[in-house]
C-alpha cells in the first residue's frame, strides 16, 4: 500500500481509504471481513458519518476497529454547536473511542450552510471546543457538487483537509473543483481526499480509467465505498495503477459512453454564436442542475434508472438557476442555424440541447 502525507497534519494515510456509507448495506459479518482485509492490505484510513444510518455505520465500525494504528474520521451535518456537540459525543460512543483523528463538517454545499456554521453558536464553535478538549485532532470539510462554497470556507477557516468528488464525468459539471479548489488547497498545504471516483457508480464501465483519472491530482487518499470482498479486491488492484496520461485522457473524454454526444466538455469550440448565445455557460448551468444526466433519451432501462437516481444527488439546483438567470441572451434566441453543432468535436446536437436546458431551467420541468 502506498502512503501519502495529509497536508500539514503530519499524518500519513493509505492511498485507498475505506468509506463507511455502503457498510450500511451489508450484514455485520461481511463488514468485519471487509474491514479486516482492508487493514491486512495496509489500509489505515477509515471514515464514516453520524448521518449514515443514524449512527449504524459508526456502530458497526465501533465493534471492529482496533484502538491504535489507524486513522478514523467521522462527520457531522449539524450547523449549530449544540446539535453538533451531541452528535460528536454520540459518534465517539458509537465508534467506541475517546477521541477521533478527524471530524468533518459534512456536505457544506451552499453558502447559507457555511453562514450558519460560522455564526455565533454555529458548529465551528463545537470544533474549537472539541479540539481544546482533545476529542478531535484535525478538522475537515466535505462538499458535493458545486464547490464555490467549499472554496470560500477553505479561505475563511484553517481547515486541515477537505473531501469532494473528483471524477472525469463531473469535471464538466463542477469544473471549479479542478481549476480553483485543488490548486488553492495544494498551494496552502490543505489535505485533499477524493471521493466519488466512479461518480456514484455511474462510471462502472470504466472503473480503471476512473481511478487513474483521479490519480492525476495531488490527492492523499481516494476514499471508496466498499460493500463486498470482490469490490475491495478490485479497488486494491486499481489503486496501484499509474495516473492517466494526457493522450489517454483526450481519448477517454472523446470516447467515454457516459459523456457521449450529450455532455458539454466546455471546449468553447462552438463559439462564437451568431446570436451571441454563451452556449457553454448555459450547458454548465445545466450541469449544476442535474449533472447533464437527463438527455431526453430513454436508451436502456438500467442506464436510465441510474441517471434518474443520480441526477439531483447533490442539490446544486439553486446555483444552476441563479447562473442560468444571469446569462443573456438565453436559449430562446437560438435560430437553429446549426453552425455551432458543426463545430462541436463531440457531435452534440446543440439546438436540441438548448431546448432541453430551457425546459429544465426556465420552464421548471424537473427531469
Ligand atoms: S463545442 Fe460542444 S463540447 Fe465544446 S463547448 Fe461547445 S457544445 Fe460544449
Q: Give the overall shape, derived from the CA principal axes.
A: globular
Determine the CATH superfamily of the largest domain: NADP-dependent oxidoreductase domain
Give the ordered list of helices and strands. EEEHEHEHEHHEHEHEHEHHHHHHH
| CATH class wording of the largest domain | Alpha Beta
Unique bound compounds? iron/sulfur cluster
Number of strands: 10
Are there runs of 5+ residues with pLDDT below 50, and where? Answer: none
- Content-based structural category: alpha/beta
CATH topology name of the largest domain, in short, is TIM Barrel
As a whole number of angstroms, the C-alpha radius of gyration is 21 Å
The CATH architecture name of the largest domain reads Alpha-Beta Barrel
Amino acid at each position: 500500500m502506498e502512503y501519502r502525507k495529509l497536508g500539514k497534519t503530519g499524518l500519513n494515510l493509505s492511498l485507498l481509504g475505506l468509506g463507511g456509507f455502503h457498510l450500511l448495506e451489508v450484514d455485520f459479518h461481511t463488514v468485519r471481513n471487509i474491514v479486516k482485509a482492508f487493514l491486512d492490505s495496509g489500509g489505515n484510513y477509515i471514515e464514516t458519518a453520524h448521518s449514515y444510518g443514524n449512527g449504524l455505520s459508526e456502530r458497526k465500525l465501533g465493534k471492529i476497529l482496533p484502538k491504535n494504528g489507524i486513522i478514523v474520521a467521522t462527520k457531522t451535518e449539524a450547523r449549530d454547536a449544540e446539535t453538533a456537540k451531541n452528535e460528536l459525543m454520540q459518534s465517539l460512543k458509537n465508534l467506541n473511542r475517546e477521541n477521533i483523528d478527524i471530524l468533518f463538517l459534512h456536505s457544506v454545499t451552499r453558502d447559507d450552510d457555511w453562514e450558519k456554521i460560522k455564526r455565533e453558536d454555529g458548529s465551528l464553535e463545537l470544533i474549537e471546543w472539541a479540539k481544546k478538549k482533545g476529542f478531535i485532532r484535525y478538522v475537515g470539510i466535505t462538499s458535493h457538487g458545486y464547490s464555490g462554497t467549499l472554496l470560500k470556507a477553505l479561505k475563511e477557516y484553517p481547515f486541515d483537509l477537505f473531501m469532494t468528488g473528483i471524477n472525469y464525468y463531473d469535471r464538466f459539471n463542477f469544473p471549479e473543483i479542478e481549476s480553483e479548489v485543488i490548486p488553492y488547497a495544494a498551494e496552502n498545504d490543505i489535505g485533499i481526499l477524493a471521493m466519488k471516483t466512479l461518480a456514484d457508480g455511474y462510471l462502472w464501465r470504466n472503473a480503471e480509467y476512473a481511478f487513474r483519472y483521479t490519480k492525476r491530482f495531488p490527492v492523499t487518499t481516494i476514499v471508496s465505498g466498499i460493500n463486498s470482498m470482490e469490490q475491495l479486491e478490485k479497488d486494491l488492484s486499481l489503486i496501484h495503477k499509474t495516473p492517466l496520461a494526457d493522450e489517454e485522457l483526450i481519448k477517454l473524454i472523446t470516447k467515454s459512453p457516459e459523456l457521449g454526444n450529450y455532455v458539454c466538455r466546455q471546449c468553447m469550440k462552438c463559439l462564437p454564436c451568431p446570436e451571441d448565445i454563451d452556449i457553454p455557460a448555459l450547458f454548465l448551468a445545466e450541469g449544476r442542475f442535474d449533472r447533464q444526466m437527463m438527455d431526453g433519451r430513454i436508451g436502456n432501462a438500467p442506464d436510465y434508472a441510474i441517471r434518474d437516481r443520480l441526477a439531483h444527488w447533490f442539490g446544486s439546483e439553486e446555483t444552476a438557476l441563479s447562473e442560468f438567470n444571469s446569462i443573456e441572451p438565453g436559449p430562446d434566441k437560438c435560430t437553429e442555424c446549426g453552425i455551432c453543432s458543426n463545430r462541436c468535436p463531440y457531435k452534440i446536437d446543440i439546438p436540441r440541447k438548448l431546448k432541453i436546458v430551457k425546459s429544465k431551467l426556465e420552464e421548471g420541468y424537473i427531469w
